[in-house]
Amino acid sequence: MIIDLDANATYAPTEEIQGVIQHAWKRLGNPSSLHRGGQRARAEIEKAREAVRRLVGAEKDDLVVFTSGATEANNTALDAGWRSIAVSAVEHPCVLGPARRIQAAGGDVRIIPVNAHGAIESTGLVQSLTADTELLSVMSANNETGVENDVEVLGTLARKVNPRILVHTDAAQSLGKRSISFTGMGVDLLTLSGHKIGALSGVGALVIKHGVAIRPLLLGGSQEYKIRGGTENVLGIVSFGEVAELASETLAARIDAMSAARDAFEDALSQAIDDCEFNGRAAPRLPNTSSVYIPGALGDDIVVALDLEEILVSSGAACSSGKPEPSHVLLAMGQGEDRVRSTIRVSFRADQSVTLVPRVVDTIARVVSRMRVEGVLK
Ligand code: PLP
Description:
The chain has twelve helices and 14 strands. The protein is of the alpha/beta class. The chain is globular.
């Protein structure tokens, strides 16, 4: 049986969600059509919008704008004509990329450092802001380490430097793993991704606080409040609404299940491989994520060896043009390239239990000891 421990990459829809999609697929037309197929689709989209709004604790007047995913939502938030922004060093490339483009166009872009645990410190934040900084973008939780930011506290500090600053958070990884309150966090913009909680991939959302004006990234029809033109991804949105509904009802149990499995995994792995270390363990972390440094073995090699054993994890190294780049997240935490290349990420689903931990840990210990004997790093 395949054990998928790569939930932070994507969370495959359960059979229940697959059933909902099958059913919707046969009934729904283009939501802009006036006939019944169109109207049914429109009603389903609005139902999904309310489910997502509830899950993230947004107010009635805040806009939930469906997008093609968190990448598009982040690009929409960042590429909105800002001249002065601050983003953290460990953001996802779909935040750092638009930030670099603003910089290349002559904008003022400040990169907020993180400490050795991957957390943003208040001094680092304040030093990266000026009275003219228009947008602050800090992720709610990091995809590689699971390290979480207290966005409410960071936003409050930022507003002391510039009371007019807008605060954006990429909550793609927190959704379904933490209770999110758009209003409680005091943010103006919040990014979500459907496939990180079991919806189809290719759907996400940008939540926009009532009254905040955002320039559309895509110009087209009047869909999604004219902020995101183009025929909606109806099936994706329906699946997103359905998982949002379920996640709202079951969040506490999901968090308990994920943290029980992750913590049991870390305890058992430390016993089996006594020199392994967990990145970000000293900081507040998502309940499901473990970023493990295993000296004497390459992360990519471990991933491939585990795949042969039907265990799916990730090395956290983004592969661009066939050449794996060491993780910018771990480098920003002050780690050397060798350590970064010897790291894997294990991320649990909410429907997994501690019973799979012994097989996973035994297998990792076996493949790592083989690699150490073979001296693969030499
Ligand atoms: N932001 C974070 C923190 C992510 O982990 C991801 C996915 O890897 C994204 C954004 C991009 O999400 P999507 O695949 O929905 O575009």
